[in-house]
């Protein structure tokens, strides 16, 4: 069997999962607004998603390492996603949305991290770049953003549950023929997790990048509301995400060409600088089309930053704790950062404006950039801080 054919189920998983995730990232704030929630209440719902991510990802990652399987854990999470989302989208009060949302997100949020962990291991096995697999997630994101945006613009954001469940079912079916990872080590015990807790370079790196990832998550949650604040529609929100993830897909696809030429931290710092510039530019615009035009920077920021950071933490964590380490990384990148970003962004937009929120994000990204440079100059920031392979 050729490499490309063996990777087809995994690539289809990335397309379908990120297509479904697009719907939540791009349109959930608009859906919640349709349900009658204000900016602060929307922030609470988004914070619940991030809190569930923060708690769930290490748990599912540990179970994956303990039982030496990613595929079976994905099966459980996808079934939980389908059941949980079916209930979540029926709720219409803040309390029920929060409760059912927490249960739904407990299963849904680890799927992306587990998929990336599986892709990283398969890439190592086949000696290909992680980005060549991960780019298919961007393709799914882009297609969904464009098509679903037009569908919801035509029929209404209240029907977003149906395309979400459609992509969720594809994920379930594509897991059947998918190849699982091979793990040669003994099953992980809970006490082994201390190797990550005691890993100072890993923990310090996560503490530094959180300044950048908070701004990334805040944009994920509130760019749609910012575009509508400037006079845009649901279809323009979809177009904005389409432009962004196409640039992201190109970065992932070409990772094998550009990624090895310089040290990993150089790419991380460069992306952090571009994040800072990006948010200040967003704050200065007064037309939704300007936001769409600037979305090409999404690939140069998230695409580069995520690829380099994921590679960096992979080298810092023991091989037999790969899933646990990757999902802790995800917990910070999308969970902790999401909690802070959602709770801060909503009130800022409600009290001030979207422009003020992006000024705040630019300032926070600037602090993160300086912190990354300092981290690079410290002993823990050196590239020879490689993972323990005991």
Structure notes:
- With 390 residues, the chain is mainly α.
- It has one domain: MFS general substrate transporter like domains (Growth Hormone, Chain: A).
- The chain contains 17 helices and no strands.
- The protein has helices spanning 3-6, 8-34, 39-66, 71-88, 94-108, 110-126, 130-155, 161-174, 194-197, 200-229, 234-253, 255-258, 264-284, 288-294, 297-316, 322-351, 354-377.
- It is globular and about 50 Å long.
- The two termini are 33 Å apart.
- The relative contact order is 0.16.
- The model is unreliable at 386-390 (pLDDT under 50).
Shape: globular
Number of helices: 17
Looking at this structure, what is the CATH superfamily?
MFS general substrate transporter like domains
What is the H/E string? HHHHHHHHHHHHHHHHH
Radius of gyration: 20 Å
The main pleated sheet reads as:
none
Number of strands: 0
The overall pLDDT, averaged over residues, is: 85
Task: Report low-confidence residues grouped into runs of 5 or more.
Answer: 386-390
Instruction: Count the domains.
Output: 1
